[in-house]
Amino acid sequence: MLRDQLQKDITEALEKDTFPTGRGLNQETCLKRPGDTRWNSHYGTLLSIISMFKSVVKVLKLIIEDGSTDNLGEANRSLRGIQYFEFVFHLFFMRSILGATNDLSQALQRKDQDIGNAMTLVKVCKEQLQHMRENAFEALLDQVSSFCGKHDILVPNMDDAYVAQWRSHRRAPIITHLHHYRVDIFIQIIEWQLAELNHRFNEENTELLLCLTCLSPDDSFIAFDKQKVLRFAEFYPQDFNPRDLLALEDQLQIYINHMRTMTDFSQLKGIGSLARKLVEKGLHRTYNYVYLLLTLALTLPVATASVERAFSAMNIVKGPLRNRMGDQWLSDSLLVYIEKYVFACIDNETVMLRFQNMKTRRGQL
Questions:
Q1: Do 167 and 222 belong together in one domain?
Q2: Which residue, 321, 302, 185, 292, is CA-closest to 229?
Q3: Could you tell me the pTM of the whole model?
Q4: Three-class secondary structure of residue 176 per DSSP
Q5: Where are the coiled-coil regions (predicted)?
């Protein structure tokens, strides 16, 4: 219904010449289903709601007028909710918040993370949020008011007293709408976001990750920095005592000269591929301190998005119908579900043949 309504609205707008036309414009779209842990999917959902707001309202009205569906009550609540100024304010505000953090969110979810660029994005994201806190409220309020005017949504006087619908008028503190939207929502949420980023990426964590990038073999070890590698080792005093640090310092110069003269190491990408190649060539014993650093680097929980997705997948795989499965069966099922793109390359005939050859069976598959 939403797709059909959007198509009608676009057709009417094109007939009235109120929509720009051209190659790539006015393509068919629909509301996105938000993912469980991927914030960029929520960002895409907000963008879709804003661009399709008129069509969404019309579809909800059609559902209410029809009155024959089980979703009548939900449609009534949704229609009342989205036609309030407060909903539109939250809609545009969260679009700004997620827009500022979207590039960082996607960078941290990539398996082939460039940690140096990710740390740069963290810094840029913090600066952008701080700039929003100090300068962006008036522009946001104008944007929200303009949107409400186009869609016949009442815009409250910012100087009038604000009382939340769920609170008693007698006990509620006397504040204005401007104070509520600016201080209680806008500033507070941005400060929460900044506090979370500062907690996740404090100075020590950031320094650790930036030192980690110096071990990368990309572009013939262009990022290698001896002093930063030594600083990285200092973060692990239980693995590197003062004597080991001195030995590592002597080993590093020989290691980097050796690596840059070997063609096998010139095209490597990522610390994981470097560790594998060192083992393959037997150099992990020669450069034992460097290899220890690589193994420590590989155990850092940088890619937490993959862990979150695994837990989300667990809720799907181990559902009510399979709540008694053992750990091994659950692990095997999760492996197939999470790495579905790998297993999609394996045809059913190969799987059946493997299953048939495991032991003697009564029938041939």
A1: no
A2: 292
A3: 0.64
A4: strand
A5: none
